[in-house]
From TrEMBL:
InterPro entries: Pra-immunoreactive (IPR051791), RDD (IPR010432). One of its GO terms (cellular component) is plasma membrane. It is found in: Cell membrane. The keyword GTP-binding does not apply. Keywords: Cell membrane, Membrane, Transmembrane, Transmembrane helix. It holds the Pfam family RDD. It is a multi-pass membrane protein. The chain crosses the membrane at residues 21-42, 57-75, 102-121, 127-144. Residues 15-160 form the RDD domain. Its main location: membrane. This is Putative RDD family membrane protein YckC.
Length: 171
């Protein structure tokens, strides 16, 4: 196995915020397929007949499936959406991330959703208000990357990872 050579500093530039958010939205669309297959598998194996039965177990199962999905792809450098938008996840030095670091990034990436979800439960907000709260938080979290010295998302800074432009390789 060849030793991984870090990327030159010029290639460690963060992609623009709009491109990262477009990738994020595309990733969300692709996750519908993962959720469908995982939900079908869970429902079949658990013999769930009603969507509200085993709801907490299904959510825990999806959390694990998402963790496996993102940890595996990020340790390889890119998800399909990231490949499409020419974005790669690397460590601070520009090297590929380990599975452990990719898992930490996965856990910290829940900062995109956890704060508004924690507020929604006790306040028992209707779906529309919950959605607006979630969208507002996502916008705040995304814009906060402008205050990071390398324009990285804060969960990346905390995980010791960074998103960089991944130009296609010419053969």
């Amino acid at each position: 196995m060849k030793a991984q050579v870090p990327e030159p500093a010029a290639l460690l530039q963060a992609p623009g915020l709009w491109r990262r958010m477009a990738c994020w939205l595309y990733e969300g669309m692709l996750m519908f397929g993962v959720v469908f297959i995982a939900g079908y598998l869970f429902g079949t194996l658990s013999q769930t007949r009603n969507a509200l039965d085993n709801r907490t177990a299904l959510q825990a199962f999806l959390f694990v499936v998402f963790g496996i999905y993102f940890t595996w792809f990020w340790s390889k450098g890119q998800t399909l959406a990231m490949k499409t938008w020419h974005i790669r996840v690397v460590d601070r030095a520009g090297r590929p991330v380990s599975q452990a670091k990719a898992f930490v990034r996965y856990l910290l990436s829940w900062l995109w959703f956890l704060p508004p979800l924690v507020l929604v439960a006790p306040l028992q907000l209707p779906a529309g208000e919950s959605f607006v709260l979630l969208l507002g938080w996502v916008a705040v979290w995304a814009i906060a990357s402008r205050f990071h010295p390398q324009s990285q998302f804060w969960h990346d800074a905390l995980a010791g990872t960074r998103l960089v432009t991944a130009l296609p390789r010419i053969r």
